[in-house]
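User: What would this chain look like folded?
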Amino acid sequence: MLPDLIARRDRAADRHDEAKRRDPTQTSPQFAAEARAVMEELDAICRAADPGFSDPAELAKAYRWLGDAWFDVAHGHDRAALLRGVTAYRRAEALIAGTDAPVEAAKLAFNYANTLRALAAGNPTLLQAAMRRYRTAAGVFRGHGLADLVARAETQLAILEPQIGLARGFAQQGVRTVSVHHFAR
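Assistant: Here's the prediction, encoded as structure tokens.
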């Protein structure tokens, strides 16, 4: 990515963070408007970046932050917004594959796992995909001495492991489950 696109991306991420600081519940109309503006900016940046001339890790970060914004707007239950996040995360995963950016890849894995859990609604397959990503993220965070992120990933794993067992049982009975999510920045 060109330096001006990286600067724009970082400003958009800072705007998103500031909107979350102003409204920790992320429920106000002001937050929704700011998040939409951030998503429009990140989307424009992603479209403007030439993948052939961009550092894949830098462009992947833009797509990850776009996915994060979609998750925040979804409040864990708006399926259309969550699916838009999945699209952004898939693009980020394709870009980050084969790069030497393990911490960025781990943050992506963690946040993508949150979205998969929200979409799962008791689907054990999606919950297992989330678990794999949380485990990957925890291992990388541990290897890089990021104790706060290790703790977040391990918390999600501790919640998810029994949830998968319950989801399997509930799926057999036709019952769906609900989960809680947290993001790594």
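The chain has two domains: 1-100, 102-185. If you want, I can go into more detail on any region.
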